[in-house]
Amino acid sequence: MKKITKILFFCLSAFLLFYSSALMAQTFVPTNPSNKNVILEVFTGNNCTFCPLGHRIADSISANNPGRVWNINIHHGGFSSNDPQYKTDWASLLATQYGVYSYPIGTVNRGSSAYGRDSWGGITDQTLAQASPVNVAAQGIIDTSNRKLFLVVEVYYTDNAAEATNKLNVVMRQNNIIGNQSGASGYPAMQVGSQYKHNRMLRDLITGQWGIDINTTTAGSFWTHTFIYDIPEHISYNGSTANTPLVVLADLEFIVFVAENQKSILSGAKANVECTKFVAVNNITNVPTTATATQQLHLTGSVVPNNATSQTITWSVDDAGTTGATISGTTLNTTNPGTVTVRATIEHGLAFETPYTQIFNITVGNVGVTEMHNPESLQVYPNPTTGQLTIENGQLTINSVEIFDVMGKKQKSRKAEEQNIVLDISNFPNGVYFVKITTEHGVVTKKAIKL
């Protein structure tokens, strides 16, 4: 059995642009009532003459119901050879409960029986028309540098489930496995010369044979879990990886489903998973070094390298000293002069399980001292703007200007060259930005709005 590490739900940060999330809050799973989706498990074998026809029928059912039906081909029994070895240890366990004796044969959301290929379509149609009390969705990434899957699963109950405890299952299937297959002419589209392209092949049940418990199944309940799974290069069968196909990361797909018990699947979905190579953070630069007591300071920083996988900085006070410092989001508030030590943390900055942290000291000056240099003479206009921002230096010497978004990510920077600096932000998304102006006497931050 592969090692599975379960941790609390976490935000996967900027490297997953397709979602951001809050702890224990519904983020991407649908919350409207819906009908059941279908998991079609097909027992097959590469020495089975009629199995390619079964594959074609299952694929057709899935294609005719996009986003509603997912089929999993389970190689099992005497019609599945040992060279190549496509069987898994799970196959016999799944087949035993249905007394599988002929091939191809399949179950629709498991149910009470397995059926021949001619029955799959009709039973699928009946199941798709039934209301489901639960929706399930999953998103994640595969770190190609270490073959780790990070998968976030969300479950939302739109109605009360019949059972107080349900089971969440995660299945790994693989496409594009080229090998021999009897009766390949039954599915011409899968023929590759004299070989056959095996798709949707079961490789592993990440959550075991029956899944893991969901203990709250009443209407309005939200459940989430993050799985960290080490993807092996080969799947063993009976303790051996001999003759087993390579597990190619780019060819993997992950199916998640919620089961009421061992023989009743309520609904399922295909996970949205992307492959990426993790890039670690090694520094944070351009953090403000000075502040003025009683005046808010917007905390910003530049993540190095700029292509680091995780980029979102969380700020906290390590030692307020005499400053009375507090931080709300990215805003530092102080009441007295002194030195405040702040900590910048990037979750999953060093690795997906390891944060990156860095300490900074900020000198907080008296209001009177700062006012001698008149930071308010720095003007940023027009504000709001639809395209250009002008920065007038007033009585101060400007060294540089940087613009950050509300997440603290630098969007533009420029060294000062003239008295009035004009920056074009017409290509920025609409929203709030912070203009960090570094002068000979310190840093001034202005808020700007792009319309």
Strand composition percent: 35-45%
What would you call the shape? elongated
Helix content: under 10%
**Rg (CA only):** 29 Å
Strand order in the sheet with the most strands = 1-16-9-8-19
- How many β-strand runs? 35
The CATH architecture term of the largest domain is Sandwich
Q: Helix count, per DSSP?
A: 4
Instruction: Quote the distance from N terminus to C terminus.
Output: 54 Å
What is the compact description of this entry?
With 451 residues, the chain is mainly beta.
List the helices and strands and how they pair.
Elements: E1 4-7, E2 34-35, E3 38-44, H1 51-64, E4 69-75, H2 89-96, E5 105-108, E6 115-116, H3 117-128, E7 131-132, E8 134-143, E9 148-157, E10 166-174, E11 177-179, E12 191-192, E13 195-198, E14 201-205, E15 212-214, E16 222-230, E17 252-261, E18 264-270, E19 272-276, E20 283-285, E21 290-292, E22 297-298, E23 302-304, E24 314-319, E25 326-328, E26 331-333, E27 338-351, E28 354-365, H4 367-371, E29 379-381, E30 388-392, E31 398-405, E32 410-415, E33 420-424, E34 431-439, E35 442-450
Parallel strand pairs: 3-4, 8-19, 21-28
Antiparallel strand pairs: 1-16, 2-7, 3-5, 5-6, 8-9, 9-16, 10-14, 10-15, 10-17, 11-13, 12-13, 17-18, 20-23, 22-26, 24-27, 25-26, 27-28, 29-30, 30-33, 31-32, 31-34, 34-35
Tell me about this structure:
The structure is a single chain. The protein contains 4 helices and 35 strands. It starts with a strand and ends with a strand. The strands form 10 sheets. The chain has a 5-stranded mixed sheet, with no helix packed on it. Strands 10, 14, 15, 17 and 18 form a 5-stranded antiparallel sheet that branches. The protein has a 4-stranded mixed sheet with strand order 4-3-5-6, covered by helices on one side. It is 9% helix and 44% strand. The protein folds into 3 domains: 273 residues, Immunoglobulins (Immunoglobulin-like), CATH 2.60.40; 94 residues, Immunoglobulins (Immunoglobulin-like); 78 residues, Sandwich (Immunoglobulin-like). The protein is mainly beta. A hairpin with a 2-residue loop joins strand 34 and strand 35.
